[in-house]
Write a structure and sequence with these properties.
It is a single chain. This protein is mainly alpha-helical. It has helices spanning about 1-10, 20-45, 45-50, 60, 65-90, 90-115, 120-125, 130-140, 145-165, 170-175, 180-185, 185-200, 205-210, 215-235, 240-265. It folds into two domains: about 1-140, Orthogonal Bundle (Tetracycline Repressor, domain 2); about 140-270, Four Helix Bundle (Hemerythrin (Met), subunit A), CATH 1.20.120. Helix 1 (about 1-10) runs parallel beside helix 8 and helix 2 packs antiparallel against helix 5. It is flat and about 50 Å long. The protein starts with a helix and ends with a helix.
């Protein structure tokens, strides 16, 4: 999250990001993420106990009480908004508050438990950091900020659905209506391919709006080619290890894609 927010800041200006924006803006985002994560742990504490991936979380294990978790999340949210209002700008503070509400309450409390499209609808909150970084520098939202948000938004479903396939038994045990639980693994694999193709198209929006140049274009082509290969291989395989491989690659993919944006922005001539 912080990597994408930092890159959002950098792409928002042709020069270097002012140090106070870089430091205080990312502190504010980190505090907000801590608050949202703590609320997620509180809301999902009973589900977490049933899933191998999450059963050792502190609230689920009782190492942190519900009261302590609530206090921690409220303090983190308050500090985040205070830092952003005072040190950055009002718009970023408001958008960050909306992100906390969208992830911690709308997604964790409602969407996650009611619809197999939970990660698609709720993904907007997880896609917000580069937009928040952009707004921290400029004080307003530009097409470039929307492009960065859209990349992460479209990337999120294949990323999480691959994990949901790998951890299918966990989600069934916890009765969380993830896509493979409701519609089956075969359907989910097709959906992953469809979203990956859409992602490939979306990753070239920065080139179209002249936010990036040829180094990003080449990087996106190579990274997208590997991603498409991985998800097609997943479609042809029954191995949960292959699904976890797609999940892990998706993380590397996003990191390298945004790093290519940064490298292109500062060191190479734009197309």
């Amino acid at each position: 999250m912080l990597l994408t927010s930092i890159i959002g800041m950098c792409l928002a200006t042709p020069s270097w990001v002012p140090w106070h924006v870089l430091v205080w803006g990312n502190i504010g985002i980190a505090l907000a993420a801590s608050s949202a994560a703590a609320i997620n742990h509180l809301v999902d504490r009973y589900i977490d106990q049933k899933m191998k991936r999450t059963q050792n979380r502190p609230v689920a294990q009782g190492r942190v009480s519900v009261k302590q978790g609530v206090i921690f999340s409220l303090v983190m949210a308050f500090l985040s908004l205070l830092v952003l209002f005072v040190m950055i700008n009002t718009l970023m503070a408001v958008l960050t508050l909306l992100s906390i509400v969208a992830y911690a309450l709308v997604y964790s409390l409602y969407l996650k438990h009611t619809t197999p499209q939970n990660i698609v609808i709720g993904g907007i909150a997880g896609a917000a950091p580069p937009l928040l970084g952009w707004v921290a520098v400029t004080g307003h939202i530009d097409p470039g900020a929307w492009a960065l948000l859209l990349i992460i938004f479209v990337w999120t479903p294949p990323h999480f659905w691959a994990l949901a396939i790998a951890r299918l038994d966990d989600y069934k045990q916890a009765k969380v209506p993830m896509l493979p639980v409701v519609y089956g693994v075969a359907y989910t694999k097709i959906a992953i391919i469809q979203y990956t193709v859409l992602l490939i198209l979306v990753t070239f929006i920065p080139v179209y709006i002249q936010l990036s140049g040829w180094i990003y274009s080449i990087s996106a082509l190579l990274l997208n080619a590997v991603f498409l290969y991985e998800v097609i291989a997943l479609k042809r395989s029954d191995s949960k290890a292959r699904a976890m491989q797609v999940f892990r690659y998706s993380i590397t993919y996003l990191m390298l894609l945004f790093c290519a944006l940064l490298l292109d922005h500062y060191f190479l001539f734009k197309m």
